[in-house]
SRPBCC domain-containing protein (Spirosoma telluris), 141 residues
Amino acid sequence: MQIPLIKEFTYNLPIKNVWQALTDTDKMRKWYFPQLQKFEPIVGYKIQFDDTDSEYQKEWIVTKVEKGKTFAHSWAYKGYSGSSEVIVDLFEKGNETRLSVTQIGLESFPNHPHFKRERFERGWDNLLGQNLKHLLESSSK
């Protein structure tokens, strides 16, 4: 049975600022993955990374884009079975933005510490709850 991983975060900024940070390559390198090389918010775009020295090379493809609302991509690793999907939804809350991230398909990954659900949970807390929050707050000052 698939149990989606869902996390929510709130930022004290308008939705357009959060959307820009989610889809701008330079900003994504700061909060998401520094190895990110090329990205376009276009369905079917293969996200490019400089991770050839990593044991876990990312193979991600943009799967959904609704400008200002939803961004999704596959999450897979070269040479490993399994694939998940990450869906990020944005909601306006007055002058704030609520972000919901849903990751489905984690059960498809191998039974290995690198692919444990808890690792992804901590990862989203770090990426969205700390890194993105810090980037957004520092750029709004």
About this structure: Helices lie at 15-23, 25-31, 117-139. Residues 5-139 form a domain with the Alpha-D-Glucose-1,6-Bisphosphate; Chain A, domain 4 fold (CATH 3.30.530.20). The beta strands are 5-11, 36-38, 46-49, 58-66, 70-77, 84-93, 96-104. The CA atoms of residues 29 and 58 lie 14 Å apart.
